[in-house]
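Peptidylprolyl isomerase
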Amino acid sequence: MKAKAELRDRQAQRRRRDNVIASAVTTGAIVVAAVLQGTAFASNPTAAEYAAAAAGLETPSPAPSATNAPGVPAAETAAGKKFTGTLVLNGKKVGVALDGAKAPQAAAVFSSLAREGTLEGRTCHRLTTAAAMGILQCGAQDASGASDPSYTWGPLENTPADGVYPAGAIAVARTGNNAYGNGQQFFIVYRKSTIPTDEAGGYTVVGSVTSGLQTVKEIADRGVASGEDGAPVTPVTIDSFTVE
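Tokens:
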């Protein structure tokens, strides 16, 4: 009888141990699933975000805000004004004009950035040579293309209703689906391009190239490091950006 009692005790202990292990495995599986859901799976873009990322100029913004960040100049400082200046890329001059009549907020921002020398030394990290879109995007702090999350502004201004941007247009890069996701980056359209809108709309055309567009075309002719969209084969630096 004693032997049978000891056997029952050992079996009961084993069942309790197995239940604890099973519970731990189940809990671990739930935790792993939760982590995956919150990382890999949750990071998959929606159809709208994918379209924005493919057609847009920066990554989608998770939390659009209809306010301008501290330090962003008021649109009134550039309203109705015209600014002319020079953008120097890899030692070559590109004449530019900013239109404060059509895009006062954008003109206020980029004329301010020019006066403060903020963009000097920054990179043109993205070149697109696709059949429908030819652009060179500039103003990133480094080759990663990351934007400054502390400097965002809106609204959108002077966006082409048909999504067609003429050669020489200078437009403002922004995060996807966010009319207040503009920042310190811009892109130069070196040939007529069609850029699809996203949920927020199009991209603010702040001005145009008045001379030296050939400089940008030459950069584009050297190609992209991989594919049709990415880092240009020739690294491009903003030597200076001045306006009057």
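Residues 48-243 form a domain with the Cyclophilin fold (CATH 2.40.100.10).
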